[in-house]
Design goal:
Elements: H1 2-39, H2 46-53, E1 58-61, E2 67-75, E3 78-86, E4 92-98
Antiparallel strand pairs: 1-2, 2-3, 3-4
């Protein structure tokens, strides 16, 4: 009886682990796709970014004089925020993405 319960427990944990690994792999692929898409804006103009993504939801200035543009939305109830850093010449020099897929 004990060996049957142990066997069922081991099978259950194995299936759970495999399921978690599959979810992680799918999530990693989506994040890689998001990063590839956003990195295509690096060294492009701010205007090019706005043509592709529209007007930002918010923007601010850093102490160094760079613009930070914020794009926010929700998908399946999950908040997504993309931030782009624009230098003084109007060129995208960096980005950050949270919760986007």
């Amino acid at each position: 009886m004990k060996s049957t319960k142990l066997f069922i427990l081991i099978i259950g944990l194995t299936l759970f682990n495999v399921g978690c690994q599959t979810v992680k792999e799918k999530t990693d692929k989506l994040i890689d796709k998001e990063n590839k898409n956003l990195s295509s804006f690096i060294n492009k103009s701010e205007e090019n970014l706005k043509i592709s993504l529209g007007e930002p939801d918010a923007q601010t200035m850093t102490d160094e004089g760079y613009h930070i543009l914020f794009y926010k939305n929700k998908k399946f109830g999950i908040s997504c925020e993309r931030k782009f850093e624009i230098d003084e010449s109007g060129t995208v020099i960096g980005f950050n993405s949270k919760g986007c897929f």
